[in-house]
Amino acid sequence: MIVITEFMDEAAVDELRRNETVHYDPGLADRQDEIPGLVAEARALIVRNRTQVSVELLKAAPHLQCVGRLGVGLDNIDLKACKVRGVTVYPATGANNLSVAEYVVTAALVLLRQCWFLNPAMLDGAWPRAEAGAGFEISGKTLGLIGFGAIARDLAGLAKGLGMRVAAHDPFVPADDPVWSGVSRLDMYEVLAQADVISLHVPLTPDTRHSINGEAISRMKAGAILINAARGGVVDEAAVADALREGHLGGAALDTFETEPLTREGAEHFPDVPNLILTPHIAGVTTEANGRVSKLTAENVLRHLAENA
Questions:
Q1: Each residue's pLDDT tens digit, 284-293
Q2: Which helix (H) or strand (E) holds 59?
Q3: What's the sign of the alpha-carbon dihedral 153, 254, 190, 204?
Q4: pLDDT digits 0-9 by tens, 146-199
Q5: pLDDT tens string 138-160
Q6: CATH class name, domain 2-95+287-307
Q7: Strand arrangement of the beta sheet that strand 184-185 belongs to
Q8: 159 near 143, Cβ under 8 Å?
Q9: Is residue 129 annotated as a catalytic residue, yes or no?
């Protein structure tokens, strides 16, 4: 049996059903107490980012062989416990890179131009041309990347196509790696100081948690744009909100949050914050990306089960 706890492209679900018994309930992430009772006979589990694959859940699934992750972040999966149990984890590496890269470029364009938030004034009969025309072009600006993995590299290519300069920080990519061609390799604070648009591409670890805090934000250019489509805990959300209210940050787009779904308590940071885009962890979720991610995950899981029948 394969248990799927979050939404998946229907064509991929049908492919799984042609080969295995499938329990598909995309609402299970909201009822996680029900999952242990469903995985007792499961050989595979397919999740997105909300289902917690914990030691306790693994204990409830004695026949589990693999976990398919509909995405790439693994914060919700206890990798150590999976390794101890011999459970293989398959992230959908690369399948949603383009969607995330396009999300960042779109957010940067919207926040730099500053004319997309004027509907209330327009509908009220105002004609705010001076305010609407005070935005900026993206060409000639510097994109700063914190983390320079596959998604950040795809984003760098899009940014260069728009006429941006690109700088990045990633201590895990060797200085002589050819991926640095055309990209300035700087330390983190140099990137923050030089970039007009800063995009985060790091996992959530003890070292990265709240690495974008009040001090880091103070080192950014006045008017800089911050975009986080990585992991919510990397950013101190209250510090971002304060910097937007004070005008130090020119705008921010947050697709991930310290607590997901965003709670009423977490949302208390954001009322009346200007030039802010909030989206529900969907930077990597488009119709096309969902199809690719789901297809790759189904292929990974079916191959594993066939090889370990």
A1: 999 999 999 9
A2: helix 55-59
A3: negative
A4: 999 999 999 999 999 999 999 999 999 999 999 999 999 999 999 999 999 999
A5: 999 999 999 999 999 999 999 99
A6: alpha beta
A7: 184-185, 165-169, 142-146, 197-200, 224-228, 249-254, 276-278
A8: yes
A9: no
- Identical fold between 2-95+287-307 and 97-278: yes
Q: List pLDDT tens digits, range 72-108.
A: 989 899 999 999 999 999 999 999 999 999 999 999 9
Known catalytic residue at 23: no
CA distance 204 to 1: 32
Predicted structure pTM score: 0.92
Over range 3-21, report the average pLDDT. Answer: 97
Per-domain residue ranges for the chain? 2-95+287-307, 97-278
* pLDDT recorded at residue 285: 94
Q: Which residues of 127-138 are buried (b: 16+ CB within 10 A; e: fewer)?
A: eeeeebeeebeb
Residue range 97-278, CATH number = 3.40.50.720
CB 283, CB 255: distance < 8 Å: yes
CA distances from residue 134 to 106, 142, 196, 221, 246 in whole angstroms, order as listed: 18, 19, 16, 18, 18
Select which of 231, 269, 292, 304 is catalytic. Answer: 231
Q: How far is CA 49 from CA 53, 68, 83, 208, in A?
A: 10, 11, 19, 18
**Nearby residues of 181 by Cβ (< 8 Å), 6 or more positions away:** none
> What token pair was written down for 93?
């590496």
Tell me which of 153, 169, 281, 304 is the catalytic residue. Answer: 281
> Residue 237 contacts by C-beta under 8 Å, 6 or more apart in sequence?
254, 257, 258, 266, 269, 270
Catalytic residue check, 268: no
Q: Report the C-alpha gap between 278 and 227 in whole angstroms.
A: 10
